[in-house]
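Try this one yourself first.
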């Protein structure tokens, strides 16, 4: 009888310990789940800062190379460039780095995709129009929507092999490059228009002198 009570007491103790350990484990797991959400929120916030830095640098660079900057006095241009360079310098002091975890296959896919884009960029000066068309087909390969033009199927398969975060970065880089090309096209057209208008004025002045 006494032995039975001892055994019962021991079993009760084991049960209490097991129940307590399970509760503790559950609380720890819940805490880790909450921390995981905060970690992902941190990565998203840091990524947003990275993107904002890229946008700011692009906007500053765009202003420095805008047509408006060419149509002001040298003194004003110098002063504005000093301000732009100061803003550029302050933007570059912000260092944010979000490392992407990749397996070997994803690492290789990223290198391959980057190499393809770099090759297109290197041909900008030789043939801007063809480079723009090529970039459009690369961008279409990254889009989840129905593309308006041709899709580079080979590039698409390479991008699919990249990590999800890298896929987003590749798409953003292509968007930035296409915007830069569009701005370059506008600047060239404005320059040609101003030259054409200037030539027309000179011609009219010359005709007026002879008439």
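Now uncover the answer:
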């Amino acid at each position: 009888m006494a032995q039975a009570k001892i055994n019962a007491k021991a079993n009760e103790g084991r049960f209490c310990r097991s129940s307590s350990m399970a509760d503790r484990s559950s609380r720890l797991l819940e805490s880790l789940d909450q921390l995981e959400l905060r970690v992902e929120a941190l990565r998203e916030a840091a990524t947003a800062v990275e993107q904002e830095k890229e946008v700011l640098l692009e906007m500053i660079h765009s202003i420095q190379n805008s047509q408006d900057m060419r149509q002001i006095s040298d003194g004003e241009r110098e002063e504005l460039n000093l301000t732009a360079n100061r803003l550029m310098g302050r933007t570059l002091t912000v260092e944010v780095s979000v490392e992407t975890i990749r397996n070997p296959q994803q690492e290789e896919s990223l290198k391959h995709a980057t190499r393809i884009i770099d090759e297109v960029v290197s041909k900008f000066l030789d043939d801007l129009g063809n480079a723009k068309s090529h970039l459009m087909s690369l961008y279409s390969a990254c889009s989840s929507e129905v593309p308006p033009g041709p899709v580079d199927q080979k590039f698409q398969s390479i991008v699919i092999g990249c990590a999800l975060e890298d896929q987003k970065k590749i798409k953003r880089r292509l968007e930035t490059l296409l915007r830069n090309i569009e701005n370059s096209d506008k600047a060239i057209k404005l320059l040609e228009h101003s030259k054409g208008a200037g030539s027309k004025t000179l011609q009219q002045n010359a005709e007026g002198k002879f008439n």
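Discussion: Residues 2-64 form the longest helix (63 residues). Residues 197-211 have pLDDT under 50 and may be disordered.
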